[in-house]
Amino acid sequence: MAWLMKSKLMLNFISVALSLFTTILIVVLLLLIIGKNPVEIFSLVLSEIFGSGYGIGQVLFKATPLIICGCGIAVCFHASLFNIGAEGQLNAGSFAIALSAYYFGFLPFPILIICCTLAGFIVSGIFGLIPALIKIKKDVSEVITTIMLNFIILALINYFLVEFFAVKATMRTEKINDDDFLFKLSDYIPFFQGSSVNASFFIALAISVIFYLLIYKTTFGYKLRAVGFNQTASKYIGINTGKILLLSFFIGAGITSLVGLNYIFGYKGYYELGFSNNLGFTAIAVSLLAKNNPIGIILSSLLFAILDYGGLSVNQLVPKEIMLLIQGIIILSLLSIDKAVKIYFERKGMA
Amino acid sequence: MKAIEFNEITKSFGDFYANSGITFSINKNDVHCILGENGAGKTTLMNILYGIHKPDSGKLLINGSEVHFNSPLDAISHKIGMVHQHFMLIEDFSVLENVILGNEISEFDVIDFKKSREIINALIKKYRLNLNIECKISDLNISQQQKVEILKLLYRNSDILIFDEPTSVLSPVEIHEFFKIVDEFKSEGKTVIFITHKLKEVMEISDKVTVLSRGKVTFEKRTKDEGLDLSELSRAITGKEETHSDPENIKNDTEGEVVLTMKDICLFKDKLPKLKDFEIRLSRGEIYGVCGVEGNGQNEIADLIMGFENNYSGELIRLTKKVSIIPEDRNKKGMIKEYSIGENFVLKFKRNRYVSDNQVRKISEDVSQNFDVRLSSVDSDLDSLSGGNQQKVIFARELTADNDIIILMHPTRGVDINASGFIHKKILEERNKMKAILLISSDLDELIKLSDRLGVIYNGKIVKEFDKSELNRNYAEGQFSEKNPKNKFDIYEKIGMYMIGLADEE
After folding, report:
1. A24 and A143, same structural domain?
2. Residues A108 and A156 in one domain
3. Do A265 and A287 share a domain, yes or no?
4. Residues B11 and B156 grouped into a single domain
5. Residue partners of B386: CB distance under 8 A and separation at least 6
6. Hey, of A78, A213, A222, which one would you mutate to test binding to chain B, going by the most B CBs within 10 A of its CB?
7. Neighbour tally for A6: CB within 10 Å
8. Domain that holds residue B489
9. Are the beta carbons of B140 and B148 closer than 8 angstroms?
10. Is B251 within a domain?
């Protein structure tokens, strides 16, 4: 497997590099067509981001939820499950985190954050179990059920928030205690002055380490990937495939809820409708680009964060949607180039 | 006249040389058998001939002129046709549609079905294939599907026909029929290339034999003209006499406890009856052979015992739920081919825990030593191993689970003589450890050699049971020798008749 990993890793690296290159080419072309100077725009993006500690801090801040949610989606991907429901799942979990953080605010901070994490994880996880159960029992594709569940979950949250929990005249929950916030990196490193990056960035890194160990280094992870490779064979080998599918959906969905830690404990202090801003979908792209590999997820999250923040910084020159455009082109070119690279090397008899 | 000449053909995959400098020729109008262990390079060579792979170096000559194939289409245009081990048929299409697919007779882009029908029906009649061209492929059995594949080649007017292990899925009677068709080809001047593991068939049908070993030609001889005999052939392949790979089958006499009883089992799938009043009793320390043409309910029996199938009526009593299985289809059901040996073993671990790389490697090393699995690296994934080695790994994995019931489905299909001798020895060892073994196979040699009792299954029912003494007597008397070939033929023929439902139920 290590030999395989090496050659597969190399193939992946080649296709990712090629698709990034293609993307840059296309974007340069587009900028030229609309009469902008690509050099000017790219240098502006780079100077805005890397010219100050604030820029770097903001990139890390924006990368944090992408890493967490990307890991969650990758768990499902490894079991060959296409979880498009992360957007709904993470909203449900974050809502639960915000509510428990407010109503159990009397608890000491370490206990509080553990309880909130568990609450979020379980709520998101349960919403992950629904498509898994329907898939196991009735063989309905999880792609369809998770998409539909997104609408259901968001509508439910909307109702409960507005009817019972929202602060008057707003679409948000009550704010948590001021001393229950996670520390900001700028508290210790003045370099990051003014940026919102906080301790949950380390939580995200920890999640990716746990993700790696769970998927690649435990019996459970081996079984999960085996089910992803070949469900029939897994069944005959004696793996309880239904249980593995349920667990991977539960864990995968559960992890996505933890993006709430960044927003609630690290940033705003409350849950707000629309806070996720399609994070659950962007994270699918992150995970795809990373080939579900934990280090790849960190790198591609950083890339997407750069694009996101870069979009804001060039807004006066070109519409910030250019960065969405880039995200889209990356995924399209990756998917097509990936196949081409694989076929090319298979012909050469390498893979 | 030479139909095909291989001249210094070399093909490597990474560091591995599948074919290195292969040179031999195939005469026109010969039945030419290509033999060799798994991984010897037979399939690669055929894939080169059929345009699937390009050789790294070397020349390929068809009818005396050099060719360069870029795809199977080029091979087909040179009148080369191939029947793959796994059939390439579209299940939902009829026989007619499958045969004309890609070569439709059409006028203004409208398919002329009438004309196609006439042509195909004429072919069916001429070769006595006995097929209904309106039948859907999914309604045909394996032997009929094979005939459809043959029909495809005939329809395309192929002159050089390649068959990759065509007889491994057929019953004795069907093999007989198949050989008749091959004879017909020969009388028409066609050239037939035949890949197989069954030496007796080689002796019966071939004009010339080429043996490959580790990517090289190691033996070549004309069968009848140069007086090749069976022991010489088996020596050429294994370097040993064939009898050496035959383990002794001595059963200890203790009656084992009955661990599995199936009684009056009826099972429907997609509204079709798969098992009807099926009955079987399996005890510790015995090998029960289930013999039959594929698709007569064998898979359903295995799934029932494994507990995958719950919609049945009748009585099923298992004393243990710990059942090991070697499924009939390695690739689809037997292993995770993206994983290494050790990683496949990890899947058997009961408790969830941390697994280190060293632990995985240790298992791979142990298995490759104890079960003689040849590896290029301990981390190699199973996909890079030959079929025989893959089968040994699956075997090793299932045996280490130490379960009381072991289901073996075609355990030596597509496996070379050395590996299958090894596997047979292991099966007997497990039996002597008082395991209850259900051996499902269509290879009569294997079944008669190993089984303590043998049931013939036809249409989801055991239609006839033979006990050890009957098998023993017949096997001992019939054993190969020219001394008494008649007896052997008797029991084979008898079982064969039950397998295809021609014998009366008793």
Report:
1. no
2. yes
3. yes
4. yes
5. B37, B38, B39
6. A222
7. 11
8. 258-499
9. yes
10. no
B253 belongs to a structural domain:
no
Q: Do A219 and B355 touch (CB under 8 A)?
A: yes
By the 10 Å C-beta count (0-12 exposed, 13-18 middle, 19+ buried), B358 is classed as: exposed
Dihedral in degrees, nearest 10, Cα atoms A77, A81, A85, A87: 0
Residues 6+ apart with CB under 8 A from A302: A59, A60, A63
A95 plus A240 within the same structural domain:
yes
Rounded CA separation A338/A344 (Å)? 10
Of B347, B397, B401, the CB nearest to A223: B347
Kindly state the tokens that stand for B492. Answer: 């084979």
Give the range of the structural domain holding residue A262, as residue numbers without chain letter: 57-317
Contacts of B13 in chain A (CB under 8 A): 349
- Cβ atoms of A222 and B355 within 8 Å: the answer is yes
Cβ–Cβ below 8 Å for B336 and A226: yes
3-state secondary structure of B186: helix
B181 and B273 fall within a common domain: no
Residues of A in contact with B354 (CB under 8 A): 213, 217-218
> Helix %, strand %, coil % for chain B, to 5?
35, 25, 35
**Residue B237 sits in the same domain as residue B359:** no
List the pLDDT tens digit at each of the 506 positions of chain B: 889 999 999 988 766 788 889 999 999 999 999 988 767 788 889 999 999 888 999 999 999 899 999 988 899 899 999 998 778 899 899 999 999 988 788 777 788 888 889 999 999 998 888 889 898 998 888 788 889 999 999 898 899 999 988 887 777 778 888 898 899 999 999 999 998 877 888 888 899 999 988 888 988 889 888 878 777 887 777 665 444 445 566 666 667 889 999 999 999 887 778 898 999 999 999 999 998 877 788 999 999 999 898 889 999 998 888 899 999 888 889 999 999 999 999 999 988 899 999 999 999 999 999 888 878 788 888 988 877 889 999 999 999 888 999 999 989 887 877 888 889 999 999 999 999 999 998 788 888 889 999 999 988 899 989 888 777 765 554 444 444 444 455 677 778 778 777 765 54
On whether residue A264 sits in a domain, the answer given is yes
Query: Residues of chain B whose C-beta is under 8 A from some C-beta in A?
Result: 12-14, 306, 308, 325, 327, 332-340, 343-344, 346-349, 351-357, 360, 377, 379-381, 397, 401
Rg (CA), chain B: 24
Q: What is the DSSP string of B304-365?
A: HHHT----EEEEEEES-S-EEEE-S-IIIII--TTSBHHHHHHTT-SS--B--HHHHHHHHH
| CA atoms of B317 and B283, how far apart (whole Å) | 12
Same domain, A253 and A141: yes
Count up the domains in chain A and report the number: 2
The answer to whether position A231 is within a domain reads yes
Give the CATH number, domain containing residue B341.
3.40.50.300
Beta strand extents in B182-271 (DSSP E only): 191-195, 208-213, 216-222, 258-269
* One domain, residues B69 and B205: yes
State the maximum Cα–Cα separation within chain B, in Å, rounded to a whole number.
75
* Residues A22 and A131 reside in one and the same domain: no
Residue with tokens 């890339």: A303
Cβ contact, residue pair A3, B352, below 8 Å = no
